[in-house]
């Protein structure tokens, strides 16, 4: 978890985060969420839009997946849910394209667990096309149909759009969940004890170790409790 926070701090100091997000990032550790700049990627819907930014290669995303799926199912009448696989350099490029190809074929949900297991249990990184095609064939997907989708202009367009959207929001830590393109929350926001907004960075680098106030279960429970409140907030705002 400490490595995640260091990455966020590095991104702030090196200009990788949008200024508005960099200024508000400390709010996440005091409120559990931050407000994000207005986006041009809004999808018109009568429901509250919820987006998970994730990566197949992210162990935290793997651990969270089952509980997130259950939360989505429970709130299916209130929310329109979708996922965006992030791009964190060339080591994630093949996995990102795999996601959007499977999503385009409407096969992603049926093999999602197998993809996570291939990476995190079998230690196969899925960074080469031959590894990917073997996996999809083993899970009953026609290889040529998959390759047609994988190499299609539609998937290329979705990959590009997703990467640009991710960059516009300054997504540098995952999993991250965006509610109605207004509020962004992440599990690590509940890991670091709240501190003064102006001193949280210096506090983090202090010699005194930060106590872990919450277990992983408590962190997830706190985040989903907050998500319920954020969805309710946006539902009321939409109905005004």
What would you say this structure looks like, in words?
The protein contains eleven helices and five strands. With 240 residues, it is α+β, with helices and mostly antiparallel strands. Strand 4 (176-179) and strand 5 form a beta hairpin. The longest helix has 23 residues, at 216-238. The radius of gyration is 18 Å and the shape is globular.
Compose a concise summary of this entry.
The protein has helices spanning 2-13, 19-24, 28-31, 59-74, 93-104, 108-120, 129-138, 143-150, 153-169, 200-204, 216-238, and strands at residues 34-35, 48-54, 79-85, 176-179, 183-185. By secondary structure, it is an alpha+beta fold. A 5-stranded mixed beta sheet has the order 1-5-4-2-3.
């Amino acid at each position: 978890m400490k490595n995640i926070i260091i990455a966020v701090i590095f991104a702030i100091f090196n200009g990788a985060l949008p200024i508005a997000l960099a200024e508000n990032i400390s709010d996440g550790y005091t409120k559990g969420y931050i407000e994000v700049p207005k986006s041009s990627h809004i999808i018109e819907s009568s429901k509250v839009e919820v987006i998970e930014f994730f990566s197949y290669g992210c162990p935290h995303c793997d651990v969270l997946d089952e509980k997130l799926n259950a939360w989505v199912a429970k709130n299916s009448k209130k929310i329109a849910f979708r996922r965006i696989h992030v791009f964190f350099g060339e080591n994630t490029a093949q996995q990102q394209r795999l996601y959007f190809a499977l999503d385009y074929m409407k096969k992603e949900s049926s093999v999602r667990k197998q993809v996570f297991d291939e990476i995190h249990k079998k230690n196969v990184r899925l960074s080469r096309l031959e590894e990917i095609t073997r996996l999809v064939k083993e899970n009953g997907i026609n290889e040529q149909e998959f390759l047609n989708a994988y190499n299609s202009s539609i998937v290329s367009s979705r990959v590009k759009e997703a990467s640009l959207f991710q960059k516009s929001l300054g997504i540098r830590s995952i999993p991250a969940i965006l509610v109605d393109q207004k509020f962004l929350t992440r599990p690590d926001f509940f890991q670091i004890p709240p501190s003064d907004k102006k001193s949280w960075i210096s506090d983090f680098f202090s010699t005194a170790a930060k106590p872990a106030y919450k277990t992983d279960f408590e962190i997830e429970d706190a985040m989903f409790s907050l998500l319920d409140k954020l969805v309710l907030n946006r539902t009321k705002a939409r109905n005004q």
